[in-house]
Design a protein that fits this description.
Helix content is 29%, strand content 27%. By secondary structure, it is an alpha/beta fold. A 9-stranded mixed sheet has the order 2-1-10-9-11-12-13-14-15, sandwiched between helices. A hairpin with a 4-residue loop joins strand 13 and strand 14. It is built from 13 helices and 26 strands. The longest helix is centred in the N-terminal third of the chain and has 17 residues. Among the domains are: 215 residues, Rossmann fold, CATH 3.40.50.12780; 97 residues, 2-Layer Sandwich (GMP Synthetase, Chain A, domain 3).
Length: 490
């Protein structure tokens, strides 16, 4: 499918002029053409303007992941305001902090039970709260669409906070467009493609499905959350071409499907959000699931590098336009050597939001420091090893939590595992492990230690093991290590 560059305003309305009757979105049993979605989004845009929202204002969104969230996303582009999608699973204090830190003047919300406590807390912040109501469709006019340049900020997303306090990432139209175009050059969309969206719409992985849809005229089957049974039904009955998942979600889906092979319509499963075990990748490949490993982040408007479907070696090719360096002690390392991953390109963050220009050590010149460790081979392909901030330094030795977790997950009794460093007077840090056991399994720290010693060097074996009913993961499925440690009092 050839790529047409959209105008610098109103992507949805541009798409509606080209393929008005093509399906844009299906939510439950309701289907929306691009023309109908554009009319509904125009109605929301008029509502925003009537409430006083102007170009450049920050509008918080406290909506469920349904058609209303998609309408508001495009209405924000028509008005020229910056949309802040909020995670409805956060505490009231966390949401209030994001709204305050972002400088939001408005909150667009659904009138449901979740919002009641929030509104009381936010009254003191002086926000204008706008309750959702059924859209009143409007034809768009050129006067409705705000003129936007590529550096205008469409979205403000807060990082997942898996390693500490979330940071605000402003995503500009130019970044989003560059990422979608680069991703499409690797996985070209086809007319009539249907994507399954089941990642949250405050997460760049969930939103990128919607961006690709409006830019390329493809359809999205939008689920309000990941539900393995619902995803399984959609794959079997709705001719889904692609879906984005994280490893834990793919595990659940394959466990449900058993020995059933992947549907023939499925051309790729984009798998990101952290490491995936070799056992999971091998099982997916055996069943014909075309898993394409990806490395990405909010700061890069989604994907940075990806593998071809079915390639499970861990070698990822950077997207066109994305430059990658691997450095140690300020210098580029030789191919095959480990170091910190630096990125540069048109999809990358300019600076974090609301930090007074003080981004700490997030940049070296115009190179963004990811905080991740990896290797580049002689062909320029990237292997991602570990988040540097998660790395355990024990007696001068670097210890990878992901490596130990992979060993624990090979234990027949272990359902889920988390490893993190805990303080140690002699070694500085030592690894500790928290595990979720499978139903009926007996917890035995000596047995777990023995299993680890069979596969790991002695300094990598956790000094203690604790049992948990569940491990904290964010809505994107990433393990929140710092919360595991803080809950243990370390």
């Amino acid at each position: 499918m050839p790529f047409e560059k959209p105008p610098d305003s109103g992507w949805l309305w541009w798409r509606a002029e080209r393929t008005p009757d093509a399906e844009a979105l299906r939510v439950g049993d309701r289907s929306f053409s691009f023309q109908e979605l554009a009319r509904r989004a125009a109605g929301v845009a008029r509502r925003l303007r009537a409430e006083g929202v102007r170009s450049g204002d920050v509008v918080g969104s406290f909506l469920p992941d349904d058609g209303s969230a998609v309408e508001l996303l495009h209405a924000a582009s028509a008005v020229g305001c910056t949309l802040l999608p909020l995670n409805r699973r956060l505490t009231t204090a966390e949401i209030a902090n994001q709204l305050e830190e972002s400088g939001a003047g408005y909150l667009f919300h659904a009138d449901d039970a979740l919002v009641q406590n929030l509104l009381g807390r936010l009254a003191q912040h002086g926000l204008r709260c706008i309750g959702k109501r059924d859209a009143e469709p409007n034809e768009h006019t050129s006067a409705l669409l705000a003129p936007l340049d590529p550096d205008s900020v469409w979205l403000l997303l807060y990082t997942s906070g898996t390693t500490g306090s979330p940071k605000g990432v402003p995503l500009r139209y130019g970044q989003i467009l560059a990422n979608a175009q680069a991703a499409a050059s690797v996985f070209p969309p086809r007319a009539g493609d249907r994507s399954l969206g089941c990642l949250p719409l405050f997460h760049v992985g969930g939103l990128s499905v919607l961006f690709r849809s409006v830019l390329f005229g493809t359809s999205v089957r939008l689920h309000p959350r990941f539900d393995a049974n619902a995803v399984d039904r959609a794959l079997e009955t709705e001719s889904i071409a692609d879906v984005s998942l994280v490893a834990t979600l793919l595990e659940r889906l394959l466990a449900l499907r058993g020995a059933r092979s992947a549907p023939s319509s499925l051309r790729r499963v984009l798998l990101g959000g952290g490491p995936a075990s070799k056992a999971l990748l091998a099982r997916a490949k055996e069943l014909g699931f075309p898993v394409a490993l990806t490395y990405g982040m909010t700061e890069a408007a989604s994907q940075v590098a990806t593998a071809r479907p079915g390639e499970i070696s861990g070698r990822l090719t950077p997207l066109p336009g994305v430059e990658v360096r691997v450095v140690a002690e300020g210098r580029d390392v030789e191919p095959g050597c480990a170091g910190e991953i630096l990125l540069r390109g048109p999809t990358l963050l300019h600076r974090y939001w609301g930090r007074g220009g003080n981004d700490g050590d997030a940049f070296i010149g115009d190179w963004f420091r990811t905080g991740d460790l990896g290797r580049l081979d002689r062909d320029g392909d990237l292997s991602v090893n570990e988040r540097r901030v998660d790395l355990i330094v024990s007696g001068g030795e670097n210890v990878s939590p992901a490596e130990i977790e992979a060993v624990l997950l090979r234990c027949a009794d272990v359902e889920d595992a988390c490893v993190a460093g805990v303080p140690d007077a002699e070694y500085g840090q030592r690894p500790a492990a928290w595990v979720v056991l499978k139903t009926g399994a007996r917890f035995s720290a000596p047995d777990l230690a023995r299993h680890c010693r069979e596969h790991l060097a002695g300094f990598k074996v956790p000094v203690r093991f604790e049992r948990r009913a569940a491990l904290p993961r964010n809505a994107g499925g990433k393990l929140v290590r710092h919360r595991v440690v803080s809950q243990s009092g370390d």
